[in-house]
């Protein structure tokens, strides 16, 4: 994904040109990874542009900041308005949304209490993460040689910049080895997640997914898929899953903001089921896209119209 190099970015309450959105080389986040972020989507629905579960994404942003003892200088309502205004300022009908909270420039050293907590919001046009063929036919993936971090090392429930050093190793190894993605194990040898996606397995009509205790991010698309699956009458179980369940599954798929719902057709060159998207994955995928496109009723209130502010018209630039 290449950035456009133009547009407007929200930084600490003000809009700046894309080319001018800069931080100092001595910023704490560069040296120590002291940043947390979110990834959300705005969809071009039949009723107009709408953000998908933005409230849940921003809540997780504040949860991540709390874990890392970062006091976000804006309220969640103010950042909601800032997201909406940034989308409008860039003229997008659909886009990817990246709020970022990070420790900025003051002093260096692991203890960062003197460094300011800065906030930025980027938006850009980003379509499907994988190709149309992959979305319909499935991905070829491998089990990574890199494990997810052990519990009580770095918190998996926080969407932190630091955690994605591990994700990079998982993704790069997969690509170098000729796969589209990889699935990591936790430190007990059970399934965890992909480089940046949650994992689901279907066996005998039952949908399984790995629990939060397996060093996975508490995914919002994951939660949405579980909700949709139960709405459609499927049984969903969250439990520890050994590696070999991947090879015995009828269906396997990823879920995440970037990948949305994407099937997996092989793991370690072993075909999953029939070697193509299965019927349960397809049903979940179709209902997910119907909801985010405004083609099916939004019974859970997941879509927030871009024109609907959370606070006030001037709230985006107001600190708490």
Mean pLDDT: 93
Structural class: alpha+beta
Give unreliable regions as ranges.
312-320
Helix-strand sequence: EEHEEEHHEEHEHEEEEHEHEEEHE
For the sheet with most strands, the description reads: 9 strands, mixed
- How many DSSP helices? 8
CATH topology of the largest domain: the name is: D-amino Acid Aminotransferase, Chain A, domain 2
What is the CATH class designation of the largest domain?
Alpha Beta
The CATH H-level superfamily of the largest domain is D-amino Acid Aminotransferase, subunit A, domain 2
CATH architecture of the largest domain: Alpha-Beta Barrel
Per DSSP E runs of 2 or more residues, the count of β-strands stands at 17
Descriptive keywords:
alpha+beta; 9-stranded mixed sheet; disordered C terminus; 8-stranded antiparallel sheet; 8 helices; 2 domains; single chain; D-amino Acid Aminotransferase, Chain A, domain 1; D-amino Acid Aminotransferase, Chain A, domain 2; 320 residues
Question: Would you mind describing this structure in some detail?
Answer:
With 320 residues, the chain is an alpha+beta fold. The protein has 2 domains: 8-127, D-amino Acid Aminotransferase, Chain A, domain 1 (2-Layer Sandwich), CATH 3.30.470; 132-292, D-amino Acid Aminotransferase, subunit A, domain 2 (D-amino Acid Aminotransferase, Chain A, domain 2, Alpha-Beta Barrel). The chain contains 8 helices and 17 strands. It has helices spanning 28-32, 54-67, 76-90, 132-137, 163-176, 220-231, 245-248, 279-292, and strands at 8-11, 14-17, 35-37, 40-45, 48-52, 95-103, 117-124, 139-143, 181-185, 191-194, 198-203, 206-209, 235-238, 251-256, 260-267, 270-271, 303-305. The strands form 2 sheets. Strands 8, 9, 10, 11, 12, 13, 14, 15 and 16 form a 9-stranded mixed beta sheet that branches. Strands 1, 2, 3, 4, 5, 6, 7 and 17 form an 8-stranded antiparallel beta sheet that branches. The longest helix is centred in the first third of the chain and has 15 residues, at 76-90.
